[in-house]
Amino acid sequence: MSCNQTSNAVGISRFWGTLAFRLTAGYALAGLLLVFFATASLYLVLLTELEKSTDLFLADKLHVLRTMLRERPNDLDALREEVELESAARRYEQFYIRLLDERNTPLLTTPGMAEQLEMPLLATQTRSRPDRAIAMKGRHGQSFRVTSAAAPVGSPPSQTDTIQIAIDVSQEQELLARFRFWFWAILLGSFVILPLVGYQIARHGIRPVEQMTTTARHISSTNLHERILPDGYPVELASLADTFNQMLDRLEESFGRISRFSADIAHDLRTPVNNIRGEAEVALARARTADEYRDVLESCLEEAVRLSDLIGDLLFLARAESPLTHLHRERVNVAELLGGVREYYEASAADGGVSLTTMVDPKPVIAELDRTLVQRAVGNLVSNALAHTPPGGAVVLGTNAGFSTIRIEVSDTGVGIPAEALPKVFDRFFRVDSSRSQGSGGTGLGLSIVQSIAQLHGGNVEISSQPGQGTRVTLHVPASGAR
Ligand code: ADP
């Protein structure tokens, strides 16, 4: 493993470590907040409910006493029973009542009240907030809720007494203290447990992605056939693995095409270079006449032209694939363009004993095209047709306009293309019979260039052929120039 790879591996494992830490911290924090808010709100609910029920009890007692004072002001026995005896009967939540007249002289008091509460303090505290229950500490540290209220005596009232009530809520306070203890204990426990659980969850979630990354890191141009096995991953990651594998399929395919292409280029460049070299070596092996040197030079020139054509074609294809390539579109009368190509190839057609004609629509076919490129495409098709049509045959150039596309067609009555070769004729460097095509000067790039030109125009190309009967190649190109 190289130094670079090692530092990469260290960097990646640090990345996973940091990610696991962050996720753990996130889970733990979220869990702690949840536990905190859940228990705190339970505590608050309990606190308010307890206070509410105590306050209701106090309000109830006040109501009873007020009613008694208003309805039966002279029934002292009933009042005494209510004030002095009822409280004594209770074991828990002791409550104390004091009844004062208008001059604040105590009329009735629950026994033991003065031992439990500071009476002057009770008087001042309850006076400041009449009719409202408030918290107050007893003499021995107990918790009380106390309230006081004015109570009219008789109906109509002859005077107004004051009722003071206090209830011992120490039990409730103990309950709340226990709750607080458990609140902090749960919070502390969560503080320890949640990070541990969070870390386990984070590791569990990260592990498949980590494994996937490790596999992906090992894949390079030399082992592009390796794939991530989607088994054992959760569904979401299995689909990620699948997508990644599909990307690898495409990359492998592209790499294969590029290396085949490079091998083909090397092979096709080697042949003319070897020819030039061989002829030069043979020529230099002994003294030659001027005519012999001329022959060798002519042959070398022919090979050099072949080389330069090949390099030109390759450059064209490379440029056509670039997204920066722009067409120089202009309004083109396609029938005229075909006529120009026909004239250009007329002589070589006549040499081969092949008739070369155009067959066009009577109405003019006009389209926004790159004239030079379309001429080149049609030229390639005509040149192929002439090369594969024996004497006596015919090559016809035609065009017609559809609704939004135009068609340019080159058909011949030549040798045709075998069905199994037909799908491959647009591949670069593909030749049906490489010995025959090389002999006739074909590079195997002609139809690839035609296809590139059609695609640059936003169109496509079709080929149909019957061995022994002929071939037809059709370019479909949008007429408006929109890609
Ligand atoms: P080349 O430069 O060798 O002609 P092309 O890409 O133009 O390469 O064509 C690929 C192959 O398709 C050729 O080698 C040839 O065998 C075959 N081919 C192309 N056009 C025709 C045709 N009109 N008739 C018969 N075979 C053809």
SSE layout:
Blueprint: H1 3-71, H2 76-85, E1 95-100, E2 106-109, H3 113-116, H4 119-128, E3 134-137, E4 143-153, E5 159-168, H5 170-218, H6 235-284, H7 290-321, E6 329-333, H8 334-351, E7 355-360, E8 366-370, H9 371-387, E9 394-401, E10 405-412, H10 434-439, H11 446-456, E11 460-466, E12 470-478
Parallel strand pairs: 7-9
Antiparallel strand pairs: 1-2, 1-5, 3-4, 4-5, 6-8, 9-10, 10-12, 11-12
Describe the structure.
With 483 residues, this protein is of the alpha+beta class. It folds into three domains: 22-177, PAS domain (Beta-Lactamase), CATH 3.30.450.20; 235-321, Helix Hairpins (Orthogonal Bundle), CATH 1.10.287.130; 330-478, Histidine kinase-like ATPase, C-terminal domain (Heat Shock Protein 90, 2-Layer Sandwich), CATH 3.30.565. It has helices at residues 3-71, 76-85, 113-116, 119-128, 170-218, 235-284, 290-321, 334-351, 371-387, 434-439, 446-456, and strands at 95-100, 106-109, 134-137, 143-153, 159-168, 329-333, 355-360, 366-370, 394-401, 405-412, 460-466, 470-478. It has a five-stranded antiparallel sheet with strand order 2-1-5-4-3, with helices on both faces. The chain has a five-stranded mixed sheet with strand order 7-9-10-12-11, with helices on one face. A hairpin with a 3-residue loop joins strand 11 (460-466) and strand 12. The protein is rod-shaped and about 155 Å long. The two termini are 48 Å apart. The structure holds adenosine-5'-diphosphate (ADP). Residues 384-385, 388, 412, 414-417, 425, 430-433, 437, 442-448, 471 line the site of adenosine-5'-diphosphate.
